[in-house]
Amino acid sequence: MADTSNLLAEQRRALILDEVRRRGGVRVNELTRQLNVSDMTIRRDLDALARAGSVEKVHGGAVSVEAARTHEPGFEAKSVLEPSAKEEIARAAAALVQPGSAIALSGGTTTFALAHRLTAVPDLTVVTNSVRVADVFAEAQRDRAEGGPAATVVLTGGVRTPSDALVGPVADRSIRSLRFDLLFLGTHGLSLDAGLSTPNLAEAETNRAFIGSARRTVVVADHTKWGTVGLSTFADLTEVDTWVTDTGLPDDAATAARDRVREVLLAG
């Protein structure tokens, strides 16, 4: 793209749409460099294109409508997106956990950030379908100098997804046989119409099992997940007790979410 800093919004969005159609997807950080505009300008452009049904927003950018509902980024790709927001969310979510609790953490980069903060909470029982989360607690136990009470970790088993979550019938049966006080759940997207959704059908069923076994469900998801819709819905927003997100969430989105979710916490 040539120098486009003085383009009208309509012209800029037409160029973005052309890129999406040509390449199948675009990233916000690439567009800010190519179009010489701010991150927020690009996000507003993508919001407008998504409202028009021209693209689907995904983590860190947008993809064509045809690809969006089945596009599942890998763990490494997602880990570099919104790192500061994830840390703020993890800090706020960790404050909800009491020593001695039985908790569950689903797969995801935000639950991974949360796991690092929970290693300091004594006497936890942690159920997870995330290999990455289980490794966090295992490493914490190896590094523990005094040998104090470590978390008891239950890894569900199952088939591994691109985001390093274990899903499928083995995971589902394991989760449904357990009961826990608090579930921390990541999600591909949240919206008023589709609720919580994911591109992975098997992961959707595993997430339903998690919600069914939890006394309280806490969704941990940054503001970029709002308005994103995956192939399979696994919960309505009314099933969420608390959504911990970051202050990047627009005011109108927070108001809309509070009509469905019992509690919305803006971290940071």
Order of helices and strands: HEHHEEHHHEHEHEEEHEEEHEEEHE
Averaged pLDDT, please? 88
Biggest sheet, spatial arrangement of strands: 6-5-4-9-12-14-15
Write down the overall geometry: elongated
Structural class: alpha/beta
Give me the Rg, rounded.
19 Å
Percent helix: 40-55%
Low-confidence segments, ≥5 residues, pLDDT <50? none
Strand percentage, roughly?
15-25%
Give me the oligomer status: single chain
Distance between the termini: 36 Å
Could you describe the largest sheet, including whether it forms a barrel? Answer: 7 strands, parallel
Number of extended strands: 15
Number of DSSP helical runs: 11
Give a quick rundown of the structure.
By secondary structure, the protein is of the alpha/beta class. Helix content is 40%, strand content 21%.
Notable characteristics:
268 residues; alpha/beta; 7-stranded parallel beta sheet; 3-stranded antiparallel beta sheet; 11 helices; elongated
